[in-house]
Amino acid sequence: MMNIIFYHPTFDSKQWIDGISKRLPQAKVRTWTRGDDQPADYALVWQPPHEMLAPRTQLKGIFALGAGVDAIMMQEQRNPGTLPAGVPLMRLEDTGMSLQMQEYTLAAVLRYFRRMDEYQLFQQQKQWRPLAPHEHQSFTIGILGAGVLGQSVAEKLVELNFHVRSWSRSPKNIAGVQSFAGDEQLDEFASGCKLLINLLPNTPQTAGILNKNLFAKLRPQAYLINIARGMHLVEGDLLRALDAGLIAAATLDVFVEEPLPGMHPFWSHPRVSITPHIAANTLPEQAMDNIVANILALEEGRTPTGLVDLQRGY
User: Fold this and answer.
1) N or C: which end of the chain has fewer CB within 10 A?
2) By its UniProt entry, which Pfam families does this protein fall under (predicted)?
3) For residue 94, is pLDDT > 90?
4) For residue 37, what is the DSSP state?
């Protein structure tokens, strides 16, 4: 009998337990509660308490219930041993998130490209004021992060005839996309970008990457879309860049502190658009399909997808 434990502070545990049990009839799936020291082969978690996983060195795999693993990695840094040594950690690579990210970014990109944000302000001022449209050849879009989600977004933008470039830790080969990689190419990547989309993983190396130095490399009056993590953005630098005209407008889905405090200046800034961390949600059915496929791969001695490199943090 295979034993699987589940923990998530907000998800409906019954939906997940029933779904995994249906897909793996040979498994006994239970919600983990404090004091549960019964055997387990696999763990499905989000922000698990230290005592849930720390003693479970016999686990065959831990599955993070999201595309990012920064939260559990941060728990490990604060409380070493939260992740038992030698146990593989997997993240959700797509499971319906790519389509959601495409939808979100296309909505934001086209809003800026067609200057709908400015027309909305004109409407509030009762101004009938046609603007010169942006042109594709001068509206270069840069994507920070070229993993599964970044590649998906890049490919969709290429389909719409945008000039797209990507920046990542190592070079990527995406049809129609100019690839930049490594710290030495970050400035070259940023130079000439009219719109910047951040889809980087949250690691110590990427924290604060959206800062005044990077903003200064972009084309004047550039646009910013942050749908990765709040820790990537130096919030004060963005406010100053907006006020100085370096950044024309920003769409932000993630923040250093969530929910965003009511007194935060982003709420009232006329050139900042806010959404409450909804760019891509975990879709239970697709996620369960992915997790079960990976459990079967591990049981059969095959390499799972979404395997996290604990040194890199993604």
Assistant:
1) N
2) 2-Hacid_dh_C
3) no
4) -
